[in-house]
From TrEMBL:
Pathway as given in its UniProt record: Amino-acid biosynthesis; L-threonine biosynthesis; L-threonine from L-aspartate: step 4/5
Biological classification of the source: Bacteria, Bacillati, Bacillota, Bacilli, Bacillales
Gene from which this protein is expressed: thrB
UniProt-annotated location(s): Cytoplasm
GO BP annotations listed: threonine biosynthetic process
Name of the protein described by the UniProt record: Homoserine kinase
Length: 302
């Protein structure tokens, strides 16, 4: 038996939308899976070089976790998994979230769990702890605003007319390190200010008011003021991009920075940016409106 699994990447937080707003983007993790005699993970792209080849691979760990939840650990068949990805690792573009979703989708087909979309979302969010990375690539695509307090609640917002230009540095930033610099608490006054910025950000996304969203991104209280210290030349690059972008935000935990640019201005704008900062990787990305997909291969269908 063989399957093909495809999961889009994501960006999260969107300035003040900390742990609650995420977007699916058109970078992908793809798995070609064949039932085999033993578990084997094979990296087929540069982004995945050095990943664990056996059961210590994150995808298998998620398969086992989901199987355990349904009392089916002993029913997991061994598989050969060829993995392809164009998502940079540890850069704030949801690479770990895509592996979580891929593992959950693989468990679903291997064990014939027949999980509903809501069940998948609940499982994935429990594993990761917050819905902004998981929801867009896993099930829904597009922009998702989510809340998690033991149960996932969410809504989708269509996004058009804007390109998300990822500015990717050469170094990695682990999420645990980025989390460590955040404050433990806010005062009541600070909380009101932070939540009002986040609320207006959601309204701006809903209406496609990108200049307003960019303004709110600059007023983020939750994470960017603290995490920027972990990223060399952050302020310099941030100010430079903001001259031509609707807004700029730190993608996920970083270190990738994303600039919102009008579709019709992307080519010329990115060309200028590349010339000014050639050491960075520049990726103009579109919102992916479809979530993860699973297909049986042609051999299985024949």
């Amino acid at each position: 038996m063989s399957w093909s699994i495809k999961v889009p990447s994501s960006t999260s937080n969107l300035g003040a939308g900390f742990d609650s707003i995420g977007l699916a983007l058109n970078l992908y993790l793809e798995l070609d899976v064949t039932v085999s005699k033993e578990w084997e993970f094979i990296a087929k792209s540069e982004c995945l070089e050095g990943i664990p080849a056996g059961k210590n691979n994150l995808v298998y760990e998620i398969v086992e976790k989901v199987a355990s939840q349904y009392g089916k650990v002993n029913d997991i068949p061994s598989c050969r998994v060829e993995m392809t990805s164009n998502i940079p690792l540890a850069r704030g573009l949801g690479s770990s979230a895509t592996a979580i979703i891929a593992g959950m989708e693989l468990a679903n087909v291997l064990l014939d769990l027949q999980l509903s979309q809501d069940e998948k979302l609940q499982i994935a969010t429990e594993i990761e702890g917050h819905p902004d990375n998981v929801a867009p690539p896993s099930l829904l695509g597009g922009c998702v605003v989510g809340h998690y307090d033991g149960k996932v609640s969410y809504t989708q917002i269509p996004v058009t007319g804007v390109t998300f230009v990822a500015v990717i540095p050469s170094f990695e930033l682990k999420t645990k390190d980025a989390r460590a610099v955040l404050p433990k608490s806010f005062s009541f006054k600070e909380s009101v200010q932070a939540s009002s910025v986040a609320n207006l950000s959601v309204a701006a996304i809903s209406k496609g008011e990108w200049n307003l969203l960019g303004e709110m991104m600059q007023k983020d209280y939750f994470h960017q003021p603290y995490r920027k210290s972990l990223i060399p030349h952050y302020d310099e690059l941030y100010d430079y991009l903001n001259e031509d972008a609707y807004g700029v935000f730190l993608s996920g935990a970083g270190p990738t920075i994303i600039a919102l640019v009008a579709d019709h201005l992307v080519d010329e704008t990115v060309k200028q940016w590349k010339q000014a900062y050639p050491a960075y990787q520049w990726l103009p990305l579109e919102v992916e409106n479809n979530g993860s997909s699973v297909q049986k291969t042609m051999e299985e269908l024949s």
